[in-house]
Amino acid sequence: MICPRSRLFAMSALTLVSVAVSGCVDLAPTYRRPTAPVPAAFPVVGVAPEPSTKVEPVGPWREYFGDARLKAVIIQALETNRDLRIAVANVAASRAQYVVERSNLFPKLGATVSATYGQTPTSALGGGGFSSGGGGSGVYNERLYNAKAGVSAWELDLFGKVRNSTKAALDSYFATRAARDAAQITLVGEVAADWLTLGSDRALLAIAEDTRKSGEATVSLTTARFNGGVASQLDVSQAQTVVDQARYDVARLTTQVARDRNALELVVGAPVRDDLLPADIDSDGVVLAQLPSGLTSKVLLTRPDVVQAEDRLRAANANIGVARAAFFPDISLTGSGGVTSLALSTLFRASSETWSFAPTITQPIFDFGQNRGNLAYAKAQRDVSLATYEKSVQTAFREVSDALAQRGTIETQLDAQRDLTESAAKSYQLSDARYQRGADTYLNALIAQRTLYAARQTLVAAKLARATNLVTLYTALGGGLEAAAPSAP
Fold first, then answer.
1. What digits encode the pLDDT tens for the residues 327-347?
2. CB atoms < 10 A from the CB of 135, how many?
3. What angle do CA 41, 42, 44 make, to 5 degrees?
4. pTM greater than 0.90 (yes/no)
């Protein structure tokens, strides 16, 4: 049973809290997303496809990359890459910090149950020969039982200090989560680029080995012709130069292929099976997405690194509200209620009720510029975050523009190099046939063979450039993560 006075006190305290909370003000500046310091559209270079009337976001990486082996390697990397694990752990830590900060919005309720036993000589109490509680003559036995529940130093957030501090922690959590998304997109792009580079160097190694074998056959044939008096020693020496160059390239590329595999496995974070590695750089079907060229720069706002920079800007904006609130009084409430009795049997009777209520108001008077300094620091940090956000947008714009610029001409380069390689192959066949019939010198055949060798190498480089360009676009456009307002954890 609760006495009317206690009931009246509880209603008054709740009314006071309700009025105080309803009258809270927010001293943080109103947040407005800054205008992106970049043009509204990306530049169009070369012979890129006609702009699409509908901006289609880049699909998830499973739809963007078509090769089953590459998909398997990416999945493995997402499970074992250590940098991504660090990013995930940072998200968990940031979320925990937000939960801690949010808890300050609510009162902490604690309960205490205690019992006190004591014995005091009656002579110390001014009595004589009095005993109590079955104790010996001349002593006073004391028993005291308490049960209390209360709130300690709960701050009424009249000026938004706690709410803005919580908002800053929430935005920091969102920024960390965006950093994790950026780390995943970067990881996928790195795995794809390293996988394609390995395939490119394996293709170059195969070309070098093929050239070495054909060169050795030519050297044997030319030596036989020299022994028969048909060819000269010069022809033999010239033929040997192709073999020596190819031997050097085979040794160099063998080392490079091993390094490429080491780089890929470092990014993946574990050994990669042989059957998941590319044998060459035939990139058709590896990267499937064909992006529309008519993209507006608004797509940059969904890039995780840009989202991260904006979340940090929001957090810095909220911290200004925290610094401003420090100029105003802090109001905290401490209260408790419970029961106290000398006997356990009467502890929970209405007559045993106790309560206390202690509001505290603290007003800063002289702080020798501490609050002004904190406010100036918060504003300066906001300016830093603003400049960082704008730079992130500009960097993203340049990365996409560069990728689109290459995409506008890469198909023309690739087609031209294919034609050049075919022409070089025909030229070598004709020159070699003329030499075999004795209608021409070996020098022309040698030049044609070297031209073909270089053309095949350049074609591999063009294929790699085309594939990595699409990978770069995947990364630069933010991996196709859909822009969505993050929800509170």
1. 878 778 787 777 777 666 666
2. 14
3. 120
4. no
Count of beta carbons in the 10 Å neighbourhood of residue 451: 18
How many other C-beta atoms can be found within 10 angstroms of the C-beta atom of residue 291?
A: 23
- What stretches of 55-125 show up as alpha helix (H) in DSSP? 61-64, 68-80, 82-102
Q: Tens digits of per-residue pLDDT, 415-456?
A: 999 999 999 999 999 999 998 888 888 889 999 999 999 999
The strand order across the sheet containing 109-121 reads 109-121, 139-156, 330-341, 353-362
Mean pLDDT of the chain, nearest integer: 80
Bridge partner list, 109: 151
d(CA 236, CA 165): 81
Domain ranges for the chain: 26-106+158-327+369-480
Handedness of CA 21, 24, 29, 34 (dihedral sign): positive
Report how far residue 330's alpha carbon sits from residue 28's, in angstroms, rounded to the nearest whole number. 17
- pLDDT greater than 70 at residue 7: no
Range 26-106+158-327+369-480 has CATH code 3.30.990.10: no
Which stretches within 338-441 are classed as H helix?
A: 370-436
pLDDT for the residue numbered 347: 66
Where does the pLDDT of residue 190 fall: very low under 50, low under 70, confident under 90, or very high at 90 and above? very high
CA distances from 251 to 206, 208, 223, 248, 461 (A): 12, 9, 25, 5, 19
| CA separation for the pair 148, 78 (Å, rounded) | 52
Sign of the torsion angle spanned by Cα atoms 247, 248, 249, 252: positive
Helix 233-268 crosses helix 161-227 at what angle (to 10 degrees)? 160
365-375: average pLDDT = 86
For residues 64 and 467, the answer to whether their CB atoms sit within 8 Å is no
pLDDT in the model for residue 484: 31
**pLDDT of 58 above 80:** no
Residue 240 has pLDDT above 50, yes or no: yes
Element (H, E) at 146: strand 139-156
DSSP 285-331: TTB-----S--BGGGGGGSHHHHHHHHHHHHHHHHHHHHHHTTS-EE
- Compute the distance between CA of residue 189 and CA of residue 185 in angstroms, rounded to an integer: 6
